[in-house]
């Protein structure tokens, strides 16, 4: 590519991916470096379902300088302490994957080994009783105040459920106020430089030609630029994650006795699972399923059956193929969002993967032309994150003991990626969690799902045998009790919302 | 209790690696019925005569519950705030690599991007002015870091200079006090178990046998991991040229600097470590280019008349064992591999190795999954450190045979990738198991004058006034704090004199 200054950046597509990108780029690079322009078509609907996130979203918001209260009001956000997985291991069982660690290290040894040892000796307490956010979430409580009491760290993290369409709109105002130019229109043509193969311009239905130096493809599953034009290629992961459809339907809270749990719920069904994402003013529901095992009509009935409350709109069907683009960044085009890949929202990774791409691109933002070393590094980073997140999701399916349908039998018996196999085996042998700096999910997250999905290690860290058993038992009891008492003393999630950031909170204005 | 626990651990070796392993294992496994025996094969010639440790060593000492004052008294220790490189990348060149970080970022942009921008604009910044470790070291000052995150003194980080032999004695004392058995002897043979190839026992020259469930090979000749289990060695000497060292002692400096000094010469480089009772100087060279006599002449010339020189040059090993942990044998120290003392000595890798082993402690069956994880992590650690050291040689403008020896070797892909990315806009790729953080890597690469052709563009969004004000404040705070700090030597005297 000609070594000229990268100055004009064209974002194709709006929605969460497009406007998160625009907002972040505007803040970090929009005053003196680049001109940003976003092209979106009101004709093309964006996927925008009620979305759940993971705690690093707060860092993204902080980087933009967003006020959290204002953000929560604008997007009808609720707090999220984790995800409850119902019927994933066995019918009738559930656990929450919470945002926080367990207990405290004892004598430099990870806490969970002590629990494992006691568990092997017949102690009936649940591992999850040693997680502050887990206990709080189960009790429907929430508090912003994090504390450390004595040697026990009660800190936890939190994320949000929010209306992604509102979030996109909120970020759109933010971005436009910082100089991002929005153009309404549909892209009908993409022009490449005959020599380099780089994208030179896009043409809209109106005939307008928009030239640029760098193109951000936020056009969704179609991958208008990255795939339809540059033919980058897609790696299909359906053999590991067979779900390929989702019915989404919003429902209303009841008139009375409204409860808003501070967590997402994922309920495993016969050939997929149902999500429940509570917003302040309504509930988002979705049935993620594999059309290879049940038909769409049957799945539609199921989404309504498993959704609480009256539907506010007709269920909408989404099609997807789980996988990732072979290269997120190809030539002078960077795919962000659905154009870069798709993972079902089992662990709320979509918005995170958008964030990761945006922040990595900002770190490697091109100056004079595009340096292949930076581009390769970006691609490696993103690939690691997509693959680790994928493996984490696969774990939920692979580690099932359900065998009541063909779908679950397939999941239980399927081959899995070698790296996931290695992580599971290592944990199964001795409760050791292997992880990388690049990982999306920290050690405590892997622990939560490994244990929640019933993978009980055969052995535990032999160093635990050095500790005095009675003291260790007492310590564990103290931790459990402190967590329980602290959680019980917290306000309810509903109270916390009303106090902190009520938007269209469902109970606002109601008596009692 | 596991149903097949390790009941006995045999550590072969008598140097720093062996006794560090014993001390750590004794501490971690106390009150359990596990015997730890060191087959003391004598001091190791691969041990550095004087150690320059990293802040990580302080964590190990805390783990062992060592009293820092006790340790420093016995090991004739001084403090170190970093490493001073003289004449490395050209005559007259001086660069200081601090143990703490340079400066502080602004708006999520790492500090070194500012350094790059100023360099490219023809207005280079003085890196040292933004590092309290560097400023303090330059003035010969030292104080312990502050726990208060708001204090500029919290940006300090330090390690220790230690007398190698005394340190080993101290650690050995600790290990023996905590139940480690010591036997003396030399290995005649290694007996393997028929059915699975595990090591069953060490056969000693005097006819005794040492059987154990788990073996730690810290021998100089890798008698267990190589002699017994035939694990190959990957040689890295084509990347690291210094394969010998000649050592000299001279009287302690009146004002010992709180740093390790590395000075480059035509035929090698001199490493100087100030201890409480002497100055240790090591001249590192390549046996194919210089003789031990040449080296002795060199080190004598540098250290003055009252110098005591060791007549024999010690050998350095460069490379790694293909598998650090095989079956029931884990190699640490010289049996595992080695690098140059750039800047820290041989102790570091052995100590991180045994701490890693603790997290993966097996039962008697030694499931290969655990060894696999240990090998994976240790391999990454060795490779990253190796790459860090290789940059020293690849950046030089010196063109004498010693410095050109490794110039034509193709760099490891991991390092090529790092340098390629850094050369673009000053970003350092994240790898797992790095000894040095990204910011430290960036500082070292800039210190070697590998100025990238760009920097992160976000920096151009920040108002110049804000940057100027912030960095002026930083410089002032640092300079004032360094001025106020006590001189290194007296500080040690006060510190060691105080306490129970």
Describe it.
The complex is a heterodimer of chains A (512) and B (500). Chain A has 512 residues and is α+β, with helices and mostly antiparallel strands. Chain A is built from 15 helices and 24 strands. Chain A has helices at residues 15-29, 57-64, 68-75, 111-120, 132-138, 164-177, 224-229, 296-305, 350-363, 372-398, 406-413, 418-430, 443-452, 469-488, 493-501, and strands at residues 8-12, 35-40, 50-52, 78-80, 82-86, 94-98, 148-149, 152-153, 159-163, 181-184, 187-192, 199-204, 209-211, 214-217, 234-236, 245-251, 264-268, 272-278, 283-289, 316-319, 323-325, 329-330, 333-335, 341-342. In chain A, the strands form six sheets. Chain A has a seven-stranded mixed beta sheet with strand order 6-5-17-18-19-16-20. Chain B is an alpha+beta fold and 500 residues long. In chain B, 35% of the residues lie in helices and 20% in strands. The mean pLDDT of chain B is 94. In chain B, a hairpin with a 2-residue loop joins strand 15 and strand 16. The interface between A and B is large, with 39 and 39 residues.
Tag the structure with descriptive keywords.
heterodimer, A: 512 residues, alpha+beta, 7-stranded mixed β-sheet, 6-stranded mixed β-sheet, globular, B: 500 residues, 8-stranded mixed β-sheet, 15 helices, 23 strands, 35% helix, 20% strand
Q: Report the average pLDDT across residues of chain B.
A: 94
Give the overall form of chain A.
globular
Helical/strand content category of chain A: alpha+beta
Count, helices of chain B: 15
Beta-strand content bin of chain A? 15-25%
Residue stretches of chain B low in confidence (pLDDT < 50, at least 5 long) are: none
According to DSSP, the number of beta strands of chain B is: 23
Largest sheet of chain B: 8 strands, mixed
**Count of helical segments of chain A?**
15
Can you give the helix content of chain B as a percent range?
25-40%
The profile of the biggest β sheet of chain A is:
7 strands, mixed
Rg over CA atoms of chain B: 23 Å
């Amino acid at each position: 590519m000609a070594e000229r200054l990268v100055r004009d950046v064209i974002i194709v597509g709006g929605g969460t991916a497009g406007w998160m990108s625009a907002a972040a780029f505007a803040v970090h690079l929009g005053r003196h470096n680049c001109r940003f322009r976003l092209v979106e078509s009101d004709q093309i609907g964006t996927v925008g379902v009620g979305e759940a996130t993971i705690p690093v979203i707060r860092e993204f918001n902080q980087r933009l300088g967003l006020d959290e209260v204002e953000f929560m009001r604008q997007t009808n956000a609720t707090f999220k302490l984790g995800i409850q997985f119902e019927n994933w291991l066995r019918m009738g069982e559930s656990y929450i994957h919470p945002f926080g660690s367990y207990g405290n290290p004892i004598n430099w040894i990870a806490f969970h080994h002590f629990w494992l040892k006691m568990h092997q000796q017949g102690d009936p307490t649940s591992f999850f009783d040693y997680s502050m956010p887990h206990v709080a979430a189960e009790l429907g409580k929430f508090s912003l105040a994090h504390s450390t009491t004595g040697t026990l760290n009660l800190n936890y993290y939190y994320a949000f459920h929010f209306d992604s369409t509102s979030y996109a709109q909120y970020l759109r105002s933010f971005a436009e106020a910082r100089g991002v130019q929005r153009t309404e229109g549909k892209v009908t043509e993409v022009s490449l430089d005959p020599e380099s193969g780089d994208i030179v311009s896009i043409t809209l239905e109106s005939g307008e030609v928009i030239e640029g130096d760098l193109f951000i493809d936020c056009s969704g599953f179609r991958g208008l630029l990255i795939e339809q034009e540059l033919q980058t290629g897609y790696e299909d992961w359906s053999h590991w994650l067979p779900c390929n459809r989702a019915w989404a339907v919003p429902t209303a809270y009841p008139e009375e006795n409204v409860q808003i749990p501070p967590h997402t719920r994922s309920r495993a069904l016969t050939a997929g699972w149902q999500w429940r994402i509570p917003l302040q003013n309504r509930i988002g529901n979705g049935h993620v399923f594999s059309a290879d095992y049940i038909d769409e009509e049957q799945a539609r009935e199921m989404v309504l059956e498993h959704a609480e409350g009256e539907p506010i709109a007709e269920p909408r069907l989404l099609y997807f193929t789980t996988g990732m683009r072979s290269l997120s960044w190809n030539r002078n085009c960077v795919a962000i969002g659905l154009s870069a890949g798709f993972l079902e929202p089992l662990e709320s990774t979509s918005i995170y993967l958008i964030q990761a791409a945006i922040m990595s691109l900002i770190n490697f933002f091109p100056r004079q032309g595009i340096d292949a070393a930076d581009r390769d590094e970006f691609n490696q980073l993103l690939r690691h994150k997509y693959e680790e997140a994928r493996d984490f999701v696969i774990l939920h399916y692979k580690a099932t003991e359900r065998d009541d349908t063909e779908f679950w039998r397939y999941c239980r018996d399927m081959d899995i990626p070698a790296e996931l196999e290695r992580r599971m085996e290592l944990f199964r042998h001795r409760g050791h969690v292997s992880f990388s700096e690049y990982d999306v999910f920290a050690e405590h997250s892997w622990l939560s799902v490994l244990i929640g999905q019933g993978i009980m290690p055969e052995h535990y860290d032999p160093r635990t045998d050095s500790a005095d058993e009675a003291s260790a038992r007492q310590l564990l009891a103290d931790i459990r009790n402190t967590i329980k008492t602290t959680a019980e003393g917290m306000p309810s999630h509903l109270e916390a919302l009303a106090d902190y950031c009520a938007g269209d909170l469902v109970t606002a204005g109601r008596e009692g | 209790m596991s149903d097949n626990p390790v009941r006995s651990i045999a550590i072969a070796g008598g140097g720093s690696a062996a006794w560090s392993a014993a001390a750590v294992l004794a501490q971690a496994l106390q009150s359990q019925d596990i015997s730890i025996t060191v087959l003391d094969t004598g001091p190791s010639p691969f041990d550095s005569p004087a150690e320059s440790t990293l802040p990580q060593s302080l964590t190990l000492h805390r783990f062992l519950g060592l009293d820092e004052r006790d340790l420093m008294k016995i090991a004739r220790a001084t403090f170190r705030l970093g490493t001073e490189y003289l004449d490395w990348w050209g005559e007259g060149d001086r660069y200081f690599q601090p143990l703490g970080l340079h400066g502080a970022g602004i708006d999520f942009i790492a500090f070194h991007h500012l350094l790059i921008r100023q360099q490219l604009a023809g207005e280079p910044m003085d890196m040292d002015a933004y590092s309290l470790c560097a400023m303090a070291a330059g003035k010969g000052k030292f104080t312990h870091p502050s726990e208060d995150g708001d204090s500029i003194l919290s940006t300090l980080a330090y390690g220790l200079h230690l007398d190698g032999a005394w340190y080993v004695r101290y650690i050995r004392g600790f290990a023996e006090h905590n139940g480690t058995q010591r036997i003396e002897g030399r290995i005649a043979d290694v007996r393997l178990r028929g059915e699975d190839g595990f090591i069953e026992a060490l056969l000693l020259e005097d006819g005794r046998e040492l059987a154990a469930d788990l073996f730690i090979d810290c021998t100089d000749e890798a008698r267990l991991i190589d002699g017994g289990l035939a694990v190959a060695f990957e040689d890295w000497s084509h990347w690291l040229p210094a394969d010998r060292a000649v050592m000299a002692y001279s009287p302690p400096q009146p004002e010992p600097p709180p740093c390790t000094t590395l000075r480059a010469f035509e035929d090698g480089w001199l490493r100087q470590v100030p201890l409480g009772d002497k100055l240790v100087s090591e001249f590192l060279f390549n046996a194919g280019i210089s003789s031990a006599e040449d080296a002795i002449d060199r080190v004598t010339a540098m250290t003055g008349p009252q110098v005591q020189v060791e007549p024999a040059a010690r050998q350095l090993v460069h490379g790694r064992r293909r598998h650090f942990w095989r079956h029931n044998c884990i190699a640490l120290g010289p049996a595992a591999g080695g690098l140059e003392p750039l800047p820290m000595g041989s102790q570091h890798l052995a100590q991180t190795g045994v701490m890693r082993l603790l997290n993966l402690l097996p039962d008697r069956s030694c499931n290969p999954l655990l060894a696999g994880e240990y090998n994976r992590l240790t391999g990454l650690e060795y490779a990253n450190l190796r790459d860090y050291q290789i940059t020293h040689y690849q950046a030089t403008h010196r063109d004498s045979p010693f410095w050109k020896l490794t110039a034509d070797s193709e760099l490891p892909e991991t390092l090529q990738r790092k340098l390629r990315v850094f050369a673009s806009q000053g970003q350092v790729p994240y790898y797992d198991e790095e000894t040095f953080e990204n910011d430290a890597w960036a500082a070292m690469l800039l210190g070697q004058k590998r100025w990238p052709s760009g920097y992160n563009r976000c920096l151009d969004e920040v108002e110049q006034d804000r940057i100027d004000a912030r960095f002026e404040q930083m410089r002032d705070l640092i300079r004032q704090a360094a001025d106020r700090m006590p001189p290194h030597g007296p500080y040690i005297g006060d510190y060691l004199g105080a306490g129970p």
